[in-house]
Amino acid sequence: MNEVAEMTAPVAEPASGRNAPACDAAVTRKEPKVLVCDGNEAAAWGVVLSRPDMVAVYPITPQSSLAEYVAQFVADGVLDAELVEAEGEHSVLSVLHGAALAGARTYTASCGQGLAFMFEPYFRTPNLRLPIVMSIVNRDGITPQCVWGGQQDAMTVREVGWVQLFCETVQEVLDTIVMAYRIAEDRSVMLPVNVNHDGNYLSNGIVRIELPDQAEVDDFLGTPDVNWHAALDPDRPMGVDPLTGGATGPGPALFVGYRRGHCEGMQNALRVIVEVHEEWARRFGRRYAPLVEEYRLDGADHALVTIGSMAGAAKDAVDAARERGERVGLIRIKTLRPFPVDAMVAALDKVQAVGVVDRAVSYGWNSGPVHQETLAALQYCRHRIPCLSLIGGLAGADLTQAHFERAIAETAKLFDGPCPRTPVWLNAEDR
Amino acid sequence: MSATPTIAFDATRCDGCGECMSACASAKSTDGSSAQSRIRIVRDEESGSWGIAQCRQCGDPRCASVCPAAALAKGDDGIVAWDAERCVNCLICTAGCTFGGIAFSPAEGHVVKCDQCSDQHAGAPQCVSACARGALRYVTAANVYNRWGELEDLFVPGLGGCQGCNTELIMRHTLRRVGPNTVLATPPGCIPGMGSVGYNGMLGCKVPVFHPLLTNTASMLTGIRRQHKRKGRNVTALALAGDGGAGDVGFQSLSGAAERGEQILFVCVDNEGYMNTGAQRSGSTTYGAWTATTPIGDSARGKAQDAKNLPLLMMWHGCEYVATASTAFMEDFYAKLEAALEASERGFAYLHLYSPCTSGWRFPSASNIEVARTAVETNFAVLWEYRREQGLTLSRDIDDPLPVTDYLKLLGKFRHLDAAQIAHIERHVAEQAQVLRELAAMQPCEGRQVVGRQSDLMAVDLDQ
Amino acid sequence: MEQFDYVVLGASHAGLEALRAIRAHDADGSIAVLDREARLPVSPTVLPYVVSGKCAEDRIALRERSWFDAQRVDYRQQAAAAALDAARSRLRLADGREIGYGKLLLATGAAPALPPIEGLSDVRFHVLRTLADALALRDAANEVASEAGRSAGRAVVLGAGLVGMHAAENLVRAGARVTIVEMRGQVLPGYFDATAAARIEAVFRDKGVEVLTGRRVKQVARRGEDCTVLLDGGDAREAELLLVAAGVRPEVSYLSGSGVAVERGIVVDEFMRTAAANVWAAGDVVQTPSFFGDGTPAGGILPDAVEQGRTAGMSMAGDPALRPYPGGVSLNTYGFFGRRALSVGRDAPAQAGPEWDVLVRDGEGAEGYLKLVLREGRLQGIFGVDVLFDPGIMWELILRRVEIDARRQALLENPQDTARALMSGLWR
Q1: Contact check, Cβ <8 Å, B88/C54
Q2: How far is B218 from chain A (nearest CA, A)?
Q3: How far apart are CA C14 and CA C300, in angstroms?
Q4: What is the Cα–Cα distance from A107 to A193, expressed in whole angstroms?
Q5: What does each C-alpha distance from C22 to A191, B150, C7, C269 come to in angstroms?
Q6: Which pLDDT value is given to residue C151?
Q7: Angle at Cα A367 formed by Cα A365 and Cα A372, nearest 5°?
Q8: β-pairing, C98-106 with A302-307?
């Protein structure tokens, strides 16, 4: 593995600025270790801190270095976990199913085609209510062949029933992986969590991060509580996942019971995600908007809607526009599933037009998936406001400040005329 | 009522040499004459074959039922014992026995019968020892059955298999031996179809059991086994999977787990197709067989390809243990299950059971065991086992098989075969037997590696 | 009122075999066995050996009490049935108590039949059916024998069936002078053909037994402790010991008004069901149909009683392996003065058609006598004196109607090995 510069430094002052999360000054903390590393290594450190019993991985670009970091941590004894180098993503998640049903806290990471191959057990994971945490190092889908970032993978599986969180920064990747276990294992939730970090941008972007103290994380997470509801354990013999359903007998009601329980778990997750982020801020001093981040919406009449790491450049563009006197803000979705309707509506109610920037395509609607989600949330808003779809950053394409300035401009046009039914393809003219 | 050892007679191996009678007489008679032998080999001139008259040590001995003096009784050792002091010489026992197993001895003045030499040579009947041609065998399978019978039955009675299906036998007997400290995976197919994981909350067995996906049985068991082991618990990870879930769509996970040496006992119940869903073709379906997706028509005559030899593929993974078995040879199956279970403590153990399907193969439901036996006796299914240390060994002689057609004619799925197809099958069966014969001949010896074993030198080189 | 799932009346061969068959299929049902005797069950067949002294009376029990306990069977002695109310599934015992049953087996056996001979009720005579009978006869035989030391005591045996012949041999061995009176034309009628019977009779005559066949007793008259037996020819025998062995009659006195049909015995179907619901019968109490469907004697034979008991028990317990009772086949193994006579099946009828074949081997000494009876190439009967074969195999060959035409000569020459070879190839 790479030798990583590891420094221990006092935190001089609460991190400030746009990309550094707000810090609760009142909290006294141990001085954190500081690392300079990329998002994949940060994710691996998040895994180390969460102390899973079992990790199963299969390498895939741009996730591969994450798998290598975890393997090395296990080899070095930094992480005391069973490491299963399964022969493919399908088995990776299947191994974790078995392990979780035997009581293990588990972790894996994949993306793109790996996620596609994993789909059969992936589909089943939340239905089994297994609190597995899985990073998706977001990658666009083939074909055309590509190995670069894009969110088509995660967006495609958003109806399967996992909790899906999208990170903006490398630090947030680490922090969110740890928080994800608390969310997943909460007895009112019991659902798997995807922690998404954009391939290339976050996976390979090197920054300075803080590493929380292990003992404090241990205290935060508690002991794994994974298979109290469904176990494969001779001490508690039971049949897991018997045939259910059909048109007669107890089947229909049983099946509905499972589905409804799953939906309730998802709704409970909205509350738990907020609580866990709150506690994280209290304990570790870093505060993230748990569901929907509102950036400079005060006094804004239009806003961009973003998801994932693109918010960095987008916020730069918003800042620049504000300096020019444009009344623009930004809404960043962190939690896509369960969809935070109330938080989204509250944000949308503050503006009169939005432009939604997607890094994925919703083919059937000729727009982006987050655009579709936003349209659905608008149903609950006070006013029907125009909502433009913009699609960019596919297959590793850059989304620069300039792209977002154009996005802002296109959004502002909504005040002057009808909202186009076709998306704005932000990288269409790039060379 | 428990079963007990018997002396089995194979008429086809007997040449009437009479050594058994001489051995019996010298062990039993008062005057050394073979007339007093308790075993009698007799020739039927009409059929030209040899027959036997000897006590079968019946489980429910009629000689004892009819004895008016309570002089005959089946003992706990399984021997129907004769009490000289009680016997009144009425000979009614000879009317009760339909096997000529107890008869009046003029020289001794009373009835005599075989006691399997339990007095002086317990466990080694002298007639069997004397039989050079293997026509007499001392079958102790009953001991195994008795032991099995005492083990806890971990399946509910009355699972919903097709009439005549042997899968319930496999499930019940496997779980009895493997025991309650087990997690059982039954991927979609006949086995969960019979109700092992249950339906709408009703459960079919007493061990933790689950439906894996059709594709991921070995992977899920990997996680289960490793996690329990991590917590210091030795839980058996057992799969009872069909051939599709093992060798077709499930093969990747099976191969991966075998390659990693996961400590799993994987039992493949091979009924040569997707029988639970209406008898469609699988990679294990044999050449020429009718299935719902290899139908018979103007341009199609059943499956056009040979089956893949899944157990051999597993052997080449270098598993800890690989074996093939048949429900027609339960003693052999028990021994292999025992070995596989033990091997699964160290690494991957794979047991392949040839399992005829009454409904999908089109044969009468009463004939399942006969079909299974004939498959083995014709070399259509060869019984063998592979151990890492010993390589491959054949479980029974394959040099003198019955004609393959004896097997083919039992099954409706082969009814349409033409001469060329039969010739293809005969050739393939002979080739497979030859491959196994040659593998079995590769005896491990010093300085040579065993079949399927990885070279130690490689590992040394890497370390350097 | 006590209630049992199964009640078995009688604890001899049929009852005990039924019990075994019930327990083999129904491990849990409650079972009561009611025996009218006051001791552990004893087979009537063993009684001649008690008389001879070959058997000690305390070592002949068919089952010990512990066996019943192990089978979880409520076994009761001195429990005789007085009346059966089949409509209400109740049995009244001689002591007045009632027992309810789910299923009932009548296996009460038979009692000695007494011929209508004038004066019989006025004299002291013996029968041989129970252990008490056997002990009394044994003592009497010893008495006659010791008297014989002074003045050759005579014993008269009425009936030359197996009981009579066994007893006669015992009495001769004890030292008595013995006369056998048999109203039919041969000894052991119905069991052996005339030639075999003649051979057996000759042996008895050699031993000094007076064998009077084709003779009837007109009258018996008391003469002090002894009696005078007056024969149909006008001559008489003085008897210090009189044994009546003229056959048996089924023990059915408790069945009047029960709805169970009784003819020469209880009438049963092929599963040993009587005319009354939930009531079965087996053994000597039953009117056994002949396997051959003709007038051939059937029943009263120990192996038959066992077969019937098994059939009844399996039927009662609902054992799916149940097969219909094939009908009785006469079958005897008879040892006399150290020699052996065996019979299985039936003889050819007097006016036998061409489909019948009778093969006879009639040598002396070790050669012995053997007779094979075939009909349409299938074994009907085999009778031998001083020739050994396996009666069980012959019985099965008859029941299976095995074609043996090609082996007829081999069977005649070496019936034991030939039948064994055939058996070995036919059944496993």
Answers
A1: yes
A2: 8
A3: 11
A4: 10
A5: 56, 22, 11, 19
A6: 53
A7: 75
A8: unpaired
d(CA C121, CA C125): 9
pTM equals 0.71
Determine which helix (DSSP H) or strand (DSSP E) holds B223, and give its type and residue range. Answer: helix B217-230
Of A273, A423, A252, A332, the closest CA to residue A18 belongs to A332
Residues facing A319 on adjacent strands: none
**pLDDT on residue A7:** 34
Residues 6+ apart with CB under 8 A from C124: C222, C225, C227, C242
Nearest CA distance, B242 vs chain C (angstrom): 32
Contact C13 B86 (CB under 8 A): no
Backbone conformation region of residue B228, classed left if phi is above 0, alpha if psi is from -120 to 50, else beta? alpha
CB atoms within 10 A of CB C237: 20
Task: Please tell me the distance from the alpha carbon of residue C200 to that of residue B435, in angstroms, as a whole number.
Answer: 70
Write the ipTM. Answer: 0.94
Task: State yes or no: pLDDT of A10 exceeds 70.
Answer: no
Q: Which residues pair with C384 in a beta bridge?
A: C342, C370
Which chain A residue lies closest to B197 (C-alpha atoms)? A242
Task: Say yes or no: do domains A28-233+242-284 and A292-425 share a fold.
Answer: yes
Structural tokens at position A51: 């102390």
Residues with Cβ within 8 Å of residue C60, at least 6 apart in sequence:
B69, B70, B86, C42, C43, C46, C49, C50, C131
For chain A, the structural domain boundaries read: 28-233+242-284, 292-425
Neighbours of chain C (3+ CB pairs under 8 A): B
Complete edge-to-edge strand list for the sheet that includes strand A424-425: A292-295, A328-333, A302-307, A353-358, A387-391, A424-425
Short-list B321, B429, B452, CA closest to B384: B321
pLDDT for the residue numbered A138: 98
Q: B459 pLDDT exceeds 80?
A: no
Please determine, for residue A18, whether its predicted confidence score (pLDDT) is greater than 80.
Answer: no
* pLDDT greater than 90 at residue B161: no
Which residues have CB under 8 Å from A238's CB, separation 6+? A230, A231, B203, B208
Task: List the A207-211 sheet strands across, edge first.
Answer: A6-8, A33-37, A207-211
**Each residue of B359-374: pLDDT tens digit?**
999 999 999 999 999 9
pLDDT band at A15 (very low <50, low <70, confident <90, very high): very low
Q: How sure is the predictor about B1, in pLDDT bands with cuts at 50, 70 and 90?
A: very low
Q: Which of B198, B208, B226 sits opposite A237 (nearest CB)?
A: B208
Where residue C150 falls among pLDDT bands split at 50, 70, 90? low
**Burial (CB count within 10 angstroms: exposed 0-12, middle 13-18, buried 19+), residue A299:** exposed
Look at A18 and A315; give whichever has higher pLDDT: A315
The whole-number pLDDT of residue B159 equals 74
Q: What is the mean pLDDT of residues C308-314?
A: 97
- Flag whether pLDDT at B2 surpasses 90: no
For residues B275 and B280, what is the distance between their CA atoms, to the nearest angstrom? 7
Per DSSP, the residues of A331-362 read: EEESEEES--HHHHHHHHTT-SEEEEEESS-B
Check whether C225 has a pLDDT greater than 60. Answer: yes
Residue of B nearest to C422 (CA): B44
For residue C30, CA distances in Å to B410, C92, C102 come to 45, 18, 10
Q: Which of C127, C78, C100 is nearest to C30 (CA)?
A: C100
Residues of B in contact with A104 (CB under 8 A): 223, 227, 230
| Domain A292-425, architecture per CATH | 3-Layer(aba) Sandwich (3.40)
Contact C425 B44 (CB under 8 A): yes
Pick the CATH number of A28-233+242-284 from 3.40.50.1010, 3.40.50.2000, 3.30.300.30, 3.40.50.970: 3.40.50.970
Mean pLDDT of B277-284: 96
Alpha-carbon distance C316 to nearest alpha carbon in chain B (angstroms): 19
